């Protein structure tokens, strides 16, 4: 018998996998119960301390009702009071989604939270995003969606990361809003290359027909949740797919919005 074929029980692939899983679970648990503010490092039981919470969330930005792009005050005076505001791009060629709510611009320091959630499994950040998105929703004139779905990851990426950061926001958000959440009704059928490396036109082509709907969304108002909205091409493609499957209205709930492409 060759030496390398002898394995002690604790060295079996299963045992190693279990140990790896256990330590990953412990790391996740530690990250899920922060004792420090993720932004300033002050002692805090929540992901953000009270000071950062008050300072950075819900910045008073006027945003396009359709795509949540921040709008200049000069652009707004041209529209009637109390009317929903729309940016030029959405007026010129409306996207497939109807509405977008966003918490804040994608920039320092809140971008740190999105990065922590996406790459370091800071799931408490998902809860914090959800709590604030719920508040923005309550302040809006948006009707309650019938169903909330996360922007899905491809199977390959889901396996590599171990979780979907959009689901980490969507699940608590749906619970807080008393809306049904479903992470399996929409799937990504094609593995798209990392969006951040592509220009806008390539992004559009990249996400076309990237999604499939496997459940019944006919006549439904669907809330779509994502951590960061950049060009909006992914959300547009997803909304297009949902509308083709019969969805009546699609509203995006995004944590952070990049101000410009
Ligand atoms: Zn802080
Ligand atoms: Zn817009």
Can you summarize this structure?
The chain is an alpha/beta fold and 261 residues long.
Helix content class: 25-40%
Instruction: Provide the gyration radius in Å.
Output: 20 Å
Terminus-to-terminus distance: 61 Å
Across the major sheet, the strand order is 1-7-6-2-3
Class of the largest domain, according to the CATH hierarchy?
Alpha Beta
Mean pLDDT figure: 82
Helix/strand structural class: alpha/beta
CATH third-tier fold name of the largest domain: Rossmann fold
Write down how many β-strands occur, each being a DSSP E stretch of 2 or more residues. 7
Instruction: Classify the beta-strand content into a percent band.
Output: 5-15%
Order of helices and strands: HHHHEHHEHHEEHEEHE
How many structurally independent domains?
2
Taking pLDDT < 50 over at least 5 consecutive residues as the criterion, the unreliable ranges are 1-11
Model description:
This protein is of the alpha/beta class. The protein is built from ten helices and seven strands. The chain has two domains: 14-56, no CATH class; 101-257, 3-Layer(aba) Sandwich (Rossmann fold), CATH 3.40.50.2020. The protein has helices spanning 13-32, 50-56, 73-76, 88-92, 110-120, 123-139, 155-161, 165-177, 200-207, 233-244, and strands spanning 99-105, 147-150, 180-181, 186-188, 211-213, 221-229, 249-257. The chain has a five-stranded parallel β-sheet. The protein has a two-stranded antiparallel ribbon with strand order 4-5. β6 (221-229), α10 (233-244) and β7 (249-257) form a beta-alpha-beta unit. This is ComF family protein. InterPro entries: ComF/GntX_DNA_util-trans, PRTase-like, PRTase_dom.
């Amino acid at each position: 018998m060759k030496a390398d074929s002898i394995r002690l029980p604790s060295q079996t692939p299963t045992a190693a996998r279990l140990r790896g899983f256990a330590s990953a679970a412990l790391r996740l648990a530690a990250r899920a119960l922060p004792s420090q503010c993720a932004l300033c490092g002050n002692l805090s039981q929540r992901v953000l301390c009270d000071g950062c919470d008050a300072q950075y969330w819900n910045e008073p930005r006027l945003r396009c009702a359709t795509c949540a792009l921040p709008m200049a005050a000069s652009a707004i005076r041209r529209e009637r009071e109390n009317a929903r505001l729309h940016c030029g791009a959405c007026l010129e060629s409306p996207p497939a989604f109807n509405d977008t709510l966003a918490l804040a611009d994608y920039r320092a320091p809140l971008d740190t939270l999105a990065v922590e959630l996406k790459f370091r499994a800071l799931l408490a950040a998902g809860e914090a995003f959800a709590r604030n998105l719920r508040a923005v929703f309550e302040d809006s004139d948006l009707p309650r969606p019938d169903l909330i779905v996360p922007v899905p990851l491809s199977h390959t990426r889901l396996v590599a990361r171990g979780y979907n950061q959009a689901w980490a926001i969507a699940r608590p958000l749906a619970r807080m809003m008393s809306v049904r959440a479903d992470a399996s009704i929409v799937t990504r059928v094609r593995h798209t290359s990392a969006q951040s490396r592509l220009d806008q036109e390539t992004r559009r082509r990249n996400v076309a027909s990237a999604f499939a709907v496997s459940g019944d969304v006919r006549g439904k108002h669907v809330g779509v949740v994502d951590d960061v909205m950049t060009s909006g091409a992914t959300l547009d493609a997803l909304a297009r797919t949902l509308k083709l499957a019969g969805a009546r209205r699609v509203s995006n709930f995004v944590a952070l919005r990049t101000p410009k492409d």
